[in-house]
Amino acid sequence: MAALAIAAFAGATQILDTYSMNVLVRSLLYAMVALTVDILWGYLGILTFGQSTFFGIGAYAAGLVFMHVGFSPGTAVLALAAGIAIAVLVAAVVAWLAFWHGASELYASVITLVLPIVATQVIFSGGTWTGSSSGLSGFETFDLSIEAWFVLAGSLLAVATAAAWVVMASDAGRLIVAIRENEQRCKYLGIGTARLKSIAFLVSAALAAVAGYVFAGYAAVVAPELVGFVFGTELVIWVALGGRGTLLGPVIGTVLVDYESAQLSGDYPFVWKLIIGLVFVAVIVALPRGFLPILGDGLKRLGRWVGLGGKTTARTATLVTAARRTVATASDGPAIRIRGVAKHFGSLPVLRGIDFEARAGELVSLVGPNGAGKTTLMRCIADGSERSGGTIEIGGVSIGRLPPERCVALGIGRKFQMANVFDSLTVAECLQIARTRIDRPSLVRRSTELALPGPAARVVATTGLDQRLATPARLLSHGQKQALELAMVLALEPKVLLLDEPTAGLSKAERMLIGGILTDLATQERLCILLVEHDLDFVREISSRVVVLHQGRLVLDGTVEEVVGSETVKQIYAGAGHHGAPAEAAR
């Protein structure tokens, strides 16, 4: 398709007049930058206003080198390398500020909003060297015909769009969508989301810099407007109009809007901007997906109406058993050791001096009334930055202040209280995302196999999910979503499994099924399982030990018989007013 597009651009030189090609060269280069905005915003969910800065960096690198050093093949290569290097360096600083652990999605938007303003001021302060507010012009550049520039710009856009299309259709593209949809779940699957977002940001910056370099070589003029906030905002508008998350939509939208702007802005210099603004507002309100998805839906409906729309078969992966990894563990030591763990929010203590340990093959239930600190303890185990004091060791290795994805690498797998899956992805895709840390995703193809370790495959088969691999996760029942998330966590091949109320909202039959699975995981797979649960009947049936928390303290640690018959437990539940729990504990 890219080759056909390039051939079409070459053929168009015989049809288009010089003025149209002159305008379209700029439009095609702008579309390359809009493509990077679509990758970041449409696929990764990062609303960025700073791609104009990277475009301007590439343009100014060419302008400054050609103006002050001179033009030659050597300086042309130097300018291109400098533009890409500086753009990537600036992007790295922005990514470091925007994607650090704990930063919200708003950070990236705010930083990229400020970036064009800062870049413009840097150019203004450069005086005659940067041309200040007037920019640079009149420097020697490439001696190419307008037809050659048109084909070059079109070819670069075609190659960039094709490459983006291949990546977004691959395993890596599916992972990018997963990060946009549920970044928290990705982190707790061991995926370094900050690193992946940074890589995408750096690649997008480099691509924008290349477009800027070509623009400077073509126009022989660079101006502060190229790095400015207005251009950065226009890119966002063009992407929204075309349809973000579609690749082709932003490319087509940018070319059409910029070309028509050149045609009509001379006749209607102020009214045209107003028209574009009104259209943008109308699209955001009435067509939030943009024009291309609406057009695509219309063509599909038309095809079905005229009888051309056949049934499509959902493509899914074939389930296979993955080879079990050999993980070095201390055979005679505890799988998890917790010493003096504390958590407080300001002056409010939530956990105080929690001490216990558990070994491989144990299923330890954490019980206690609401507000006892059970879920908070789970968070402290799965995320090294959560606790206020104390130490936690997995297989004899301290988690320190490691983020969740690094804790997963030590052998921790966490299932949340509410089923936490990827609603827009199929069951198979959710499970493939869960295997990302172990089975590296491809950049150029979509996997046709779903390799799951024995425990995860057993959960999938036992709960009937193996018959629904092509079903979007949002269409599953509550119980099936719980089972899917459990299978996703087991796909990580953890040493310590953290389960927060896995039977909440399930029927009695579903609870029995999950209970049998958990018992097998502990006894047959030798997993260390920490289970938060309110159903004491369920706890009694499957637990090897019970730990009781109350008001942030560990008050009892013993066998099931010792705990359920304890007067302390009866008093705790009775005092907490836990409905039904005193009777359960007294049995």
From TrEMBL:
It is a multi-pass membrane protein. The chain crosses the membrane at residues 77-99, 106-129, 149-177, 198-223, 235-259, 271-292. The keyword Membrane applies. It is found in: Cell membrane. It comes from the Bacteria. The keyword Calcium does not apply. Residues 336-576 form the ABC transporter domain. This is Branched-chain amino acid ABC transporter substrate-binding protein.
